[in-house]
Structures are given as C-alpha cells and as structure tokens.
Automatic annotation (TrEMBL):
Gene3D superfamilies: 3.40.190.290, Winged helix-like DNA-binding domain superfamily/Winged helix DNA-binding domain. Keywords: DNA-binding, Transcription, Transcription regulation. GO terms for molecular function: DNA-binding transcription factor activity; sequence-specific DNA binding. One of its GO terms (biological process) is DNA-templated transcription. It comes from the Bacteria. This is LysR family transcriptional regulator. The keyword Lipoprotein does not apply. InterPro entries: LysR-type_TF_proteobact-type (IPR058163), LysR_HTH_N (IPR000847), LysR_subst-bd (IPR005119), WH-like_DNA-bd_sf (IPR036388), WH_DNA-bd_sf (IPR036390). Pfam families: HTH_1 (PF00126), LysR_substrate (PF03466). It comes from Frigidibacter albus.
C-alpha cells in the first residue's frame, strides 16, 4: 500500500508532468523522485505514468489514483490545521495566482498586512498574464477577471475596479487635444497584444473601436511604463495610477470601464478552515486597497 509520502511525490509528478519539476517543488533530486515513483508502481502493480521525451503523462491507473491521493492531501492539511489550532493564526505556505495588474499593484501590500497579522504564514504570489490551472495545483487559489464556467471550483466575487483612458501629462500637452473618440486616430495607442488577450474582459480597446495597437504587451506593468515614458495613451487600472503620478485621464466623461476580480478556489478547500480564513482576509484587504488607491487616483 502507498503511504502519504509516496502519494505526495505522485501528485507532484502528475501536476508538473516531469521528474525535475516535481523535484524542485519537493526539494528532491529528479533521480530520487524517479525511484520513488518506480517503487510506488511496483507496490501497486500498475504503471502510473507514460514516459516520453515530452514528459510524464498519467496512465488510466494513474488517473484513477489522483482523487485518492488528493483526498489524502486534504486529510493531511486538515490534520495539520487541527493540530495548529485556529488561535495560533494562519501558518504554512499559500500560493496565490493572479493577473499581473492585481499581482503588481494590489497583492503585495494586501498580503504583507495579512502576514504581519500571521507571522507563521508564507505567501507566494505567482503573476502570470493567463488563466491559472488549479487542477494542476499551480496555485492554491487564484484571482481572475472572469468567473470560470467549468471545473470543480468555488467562485466568489472579490471587488469591482475601474479603468480609464490615460496618458502622460507631457505627451498630452505636446500633441493635439483629444475631445472625442474620433481624435484617438491621431494618437499612438498602448495596449495588449491582440492575439495574447487571454480573457475577453481584457479586450478594452475593442470597446473603443480600435483595431491596431502600435505598442502592445501582454504585461500590464510594461504598458504602464510606456505610458509613463510618454509613448502614447492607453487603458489604465485606476488603482495603478497612484504608482504613475504623471498620468492624466483622457475623455474621462466618455471612457470609463468597470471590471471585477473573482477568487477561484478548489471546491474541496471549502472544508479547510485555514484556506477560508485566508480567503476572508484577502477579500477584505483587496476591497479596502482598491478603494484606497482609486480614491488617490481621483485626485490626480
């Protein structure tokens, strides 16, 4: 029979699809991981992975083992929580995935405050301009700009946030005035690379009827730096504007977008008091931080 340590290694390989990737997360060398997988397969009497140059893919037997291994993972996490006790505060590691605008301009200060209140807690922020795959445990939970439509997940709305069209004051002063959307044709626009927009909610410029983006990046901070450098005009999160005090809104009465952040969790994590308490602190912190930064931006 497999013990928890065997199952822990099995899950790491299944999620990373490689021995080296699993080893990095487990802090084991790839050869050791490979030996442990081979031993587990021998003890169960079934091959769990198909090996190829592309990596490790689950066999049918491996796929059947996944829910049992994840149940053991949840049981061990729950036991650790019970032993630690709620009064001791949050502890251990939580990995949080988020789009890079949220990850850069909101989560650092919000999670720092949560960690100040819970000294035993370790938070990892994974900032990626794409949708996170929670089934592969890329993160324990994720912030998204659209609620998922499939999967065994729980979803809760975190907060609304606003976006505006903006440009650097120096850029705007040196170029023709913008008084209508038609005037945008005479200006260089900054935005997402069209074929790398991973969520329809991010296709801001389509709402302006703009088809060409001379300066495009899949990174929100890169777009913001272009605007700060006076390279053009583009859509900016209002909560990011205090980090770029030289920006000024354009067509403020005509262009104002609202989007939402959603917190995505594994359905089974609803039974985890630790994850629930962290989610509650994150929700409260994000709402307060968005409100604080948007109030600062209103004065720019």
């Amino acid at each position: 029979m497999a013990d928890w340590d065997d199952l822990r290694i099995f899950l790491a390989v299944a999620r990373s699809e490689s021995l080296s990737g699993a080893g990095r997360g487990l802090r084991l060398d790839a050869a050791t991981v490979g030996r442990r997988i081979a031993r587990l397969e021998d003890s169960l009497g079934h091959p769990l992975f198909l090996r190829s140059a592309q990596g490790y893919r689950l066999t049918e037997a491996g796929g059947r083992l996944i829910p049992h291994a994840e149940a053991a993972e949840r049981a061990m996490a729950s036991a650790a929580e019970d032993l630690a006790g709620a009064a001791a505060g949050l502890s251990g590691q939580i990995r949080l995935g988020a789009p890079d605008g949220c990850a850069n301009y909101l989560l650092p200060q919000v999670t720092a405050a949560i960690c100040d209140a819970n000294p035993g807690l370790e938070v990892q922020i994974v900032a990626l301009p794409r949708v996170f795959n929670l089934s592969k445990r890329e993160a324990d939970m994720a912030v998204a700009v659209s609620p998922p439509e499939a999967g065994r997940l729980t979803v809760q709305k975190l907060t609304d946030y606003r976006l505006s069209l903006a440009g650097d004051a120096g850029y705007l002063a040196a170029r023709p005035a913008i008084t209508s959307r038609e005037d945008l044709q005479g200006h260089r626009l900054v935005g997402y690379i069209p074929d790398m927009i991973f969520d329809k909610e991010l296709d801001y410029l389509a709402e302006l009827g703009v088809g060409t983006v001379p300066l495009g990046s899949n990174s929100v901070p890169v777009q913001l730096m272009w605007l700060r450098a006076g390279a053009g005009i583009g859509i900016v999160h209002d909560f990011a504007m205090p980090f770029a005090p030289g920006l000024r809104r354009v067509l403020a009465g005509q262009v104002a977008l609202t989007r939402s952040f959603w917190l995505i969790r594994h359905a089974d994590d609803r039974r985890s008091d630790r994850m629930t308490r962290f989610a509650e602190a994150l929700t409260l912190g994000l709402r307060r931080e968005v409100a604080r930064l948007e109030a600062l931006a209103a004065g720019q």
